[in-house]
Amino acid sequence: MSLVLVASIIIALIGGIVRGITGFGGSLVMTPALAAMFEPRMVIPVVLLLEAFAAAPTLAPAAGKASIKVIAPICAAAFLTVPLGGYLLATTAPHVLRRLIAVVVITFSLMLLMNVRYSGSRRLPTSIALGAISGLLLGGTGMGGPPIILYLLSGPDPIETTRANLMLCVTVISIAALTLLWWRGMLHMTGQVSLLVLGPSYYVGIVAGTCFFRGFSEKRFRQLTLFLLILVSLVSLTV
After folding, report:
1. How is the chain split into domains, by residue range?
2. Are 96 and 140 in contact (CB under 8 A)?
């Protein structure tokens, strides 16, 4: 087993642990680290698949609590721009994509660390613009969730509704992105970076994070994770 393969499995395990503890961050952890070792166009489809399968068991409960009125315009706009992001993923040079991924991770990690929230009113044009940005980022970098997180957390909905909105919205547009990548022949089940290789360690990490790290301070762990993401991404900018 090569060192690169071992490193990939460890990265997936860490991504799963982070997601299990904080409920987010799996793709933010895995994408920049794996993209430093493999072409981003190989990494992003696999990360999207891992996140989609991880979210699948919670979709039915989330659908019952989510506000379709809130997430529908976001998802509709994202559907229109995901193909443009997918085109960028398929045609942009790998070193450019690596740096774009690093910049996205650094930007949103800093915003989450500083507890930045959208402060304007939740209007239809704003939701459409946000969805368009998220779809473009998701198709091109595999990370369309952070803008939606920053936007929806600022709303007046109860926390249960907000969590359901986030989960359902991000999963739905991720499925749209995966459908596009499948249509373009960019989904692969085998190879060093694939669902079959990284999936087991990722889900072991999720179980470990959920069951064995409950004594951790989620707030402190989230802050540490974001600092590490910034560090990894800064390193990615130099390779």
Report:
1. 3-236
2. no
Residue ranges of E strands in 53-172: none
- Between CA 100 and CA 9 the distance in angstroms is 23
Assigned token pair, 103: 């910049």
Percent of the chain exceeding pLDDT 90 equals 9
Pseudo-torsion of CA 176, 75, 170, 68, nearest 10°? -130
What amino acid occupies position 165?
N
Residue 170 and residue 127: Cα distance in Å, rounded? 14
Span 205-213, average pLDDT: 81
Angle formed by the axes of helices 124-141 and 68-91, nearest 10°: 30
Q: Which two tokens stand for residue 150?
A: 């920053």
pTM here? 0.78
Beta strands in 80-152, from DSSP E residues, in sequence order: none
Q: How far apart are CA 239 and CA 229, in angstroms?
A: 16
DSSP structure class, residue 57: G
